[in-house]
Write a structure and sequence with these properties.
Blueprint lengths: L7 H25 L10 H40 L3 H8 L16 H30 L2 H21 L31 H25 L3
Keywords: Membrane, Transmembrane, Transmembrane helix
Amino acid sequence: MLWACNQPFLVMIIYPALFLALVSDSASSELESNWFYLTAGRISSRVLWCWSKNGAVALLAVFFTALLFLGFGVLGGLATSFGGSWSRLVYLSGWKYPGGLPLSCLAIPPPLVALRIFLLLSVGLAALGAVALNLALVARRAFWGWAAGVVLCLLSYGAWHQLHHPLSFLLPSLHLLLAAHRECNPSMPSVFTVPASMAAGAALFLIAGMAGRLNVSKRDL
């Protein structure tokens, strides 16, 4: 489970792309319904609808992350049962902690490592999902929301993993990766901590929600 949740390509591109596809599918159903929620003509109804959709994205992010944990937890249990002492050999080699984390993370209790990964993925995916959802509703094309989210993820991955740019922590999908944070990677800026990432994700979620609220409240019937 730790390995699957700390591989940069999986965490920064594959998981967000799959999650954003679910969000875009939800946006498609709303767009195909011809914006039925606007026919009431009341601003309060529109705003309530908008925030309910963003809230649904947040719940979907938690559910999606829980499914990842459950699936990889089961697979990890089977691998541990039948795979012998592979983790002990990796640890003794001194190369890296099983799961893709450096040895410095051994000081962190495993349940706390798992909790941090879960929170980072849930908050980060909720933020990316809110951005994709509201872009799709603004553009009236679900594809553009998904495409914008995937482009952000590709930029994050390229800037950090390929270019090693010092400002790559400002891009959103790097916040999903625990191994990239200051607690596990001393080379990262001191401001790039797990609590800071969660706060940034929550802020991005609220900003996307507010932008969607303005769009919905001013949209013509």
